[in-house]
Structures are given as C-alpha cells and as structure tokens.
Amino acid sequence: MVDFTQHPVKGVYALAALGLELVRFPVFIVKFLLFGRQHPSWTFRQAITVHALFSGLWHVATVQAKTPLPLTPDREKERFLVIKPAKDDVYKGPLRSNKDVVPAEIGATWFPAPLTTGSDKSNVKVVLHIHGGAFVTGQSIAFVIHIPVANFYQEMEGRDNAELPQRNFSSTP
C-alpha cells in the first residue's frame, strides 16, 4: 500500500482528493435531491454537510495531517496556562504500557476565568473536559469549541469553572 503520509505523495494525494470530490459533488447533489438521503428525516442541507464533513475527515485521516499544538495563548489570553507533566513515579500500570507514549507539556484554558491563589476554593466545582474531537482531528481552541462547552457547563450544570486541556490524540506523534 502507498504511504500517503509523506511528502510529495501527501501533496499529490491532496490534489487528487480535491479533484475527486469536486467531480463527485454534483453527483451527490442529484442523488440527495432525487433519490433520497442518508436518513429519511434529514434535509438536503444536512445530507450535503454530513457528506462533505465525512469526505473531508476521510482525506485528512488518510494523509495523517498534523495539528499544531502551540503552548502560547491566542484569544484565551490570561485564561491559558501550560500544564507540565507529573514526576515519572506517578505514571504506573497502563500509563507505562507503551514506551513510545511519554508525558508532555500541554496547554489548557480556564472558563470563565482561572482559579488564582486568592480564589475561595472551599466550595468550587471544576469540570475537566476532554473534548471528543481530540480522537479525530483538530484541536480545542477557544473560539471553536471551548466557549459553547464552557457556557453549557456553567449555565446548564451550575459549575463554577471549567478547565479544557488542549490535546489531539489522533495526529500528534
């Protein structure tokens, strides 16, 4: 099998995939308008969106696109922090089962604001949210995923703070 994860094959594959999807797109438009959709209750827009997302994720996974994980704040500003790994003796059992998997520094974002040394921590509920997208592609950035999730936890669940680590398990070596 051809390795699509290395350049220049990765670039050739990306161009070929783009061409293929541009050719297939009108076919799916006709299919979804005349012959039904993936689910009978879906609208045309839902069917096209799901098809586009599935195709895009398929090709991104095929080339194993790497997602950068910067350890610097962007829009998060003072809510961003870097979490350092614990000492080696903390990691036991399954956490030691693969010598290629090693603890690393990761970024994280607090919502609505970080806890400080002066914060009253006697009755604080904190949610640690590991986003499911970490197992697919992309990263947890504030303007894409953090804000809606944090608002959900704060308003719907009555939590005081949420801490959202930045991690991508699928494409980070």
Verbal overview:
The protein is 35% helix and 10% strand. The chain is α+β, with helices and mostly antiparallel strands. It has two domains: 9-63, no CATH class; 77-165, no CATH class. The chain is extended, with a radius of gyration of 21 Å. It starts with 8 loop residues before the first helix and ends in an 8-residue tail after the last strand. The model is unreliable at 142-146 (pLDDT under 50).
Q: Descriptors for this entry?
A:
173 residues; 4-stranded mixed β-sheet
Query: Could you tell me how far the N terminus lies from the C terminus, measured between alpha carbons in angstroms?
Result: 21 Å
Element pattern in H and E? HHEEEHE
Query: What is the percent of helical residues?
Result: 25-40%
Radius of gyration from the CA trace?
21 Å
Précis, in short:
The chain is an alpha+beta fold.
Topology:
Layout: H1 9-34, H2 44-63, E1 80-83, E2 106-111, E3 126-128, H3 142-156, E4 161-165
Helix pairs in contact: 1-2
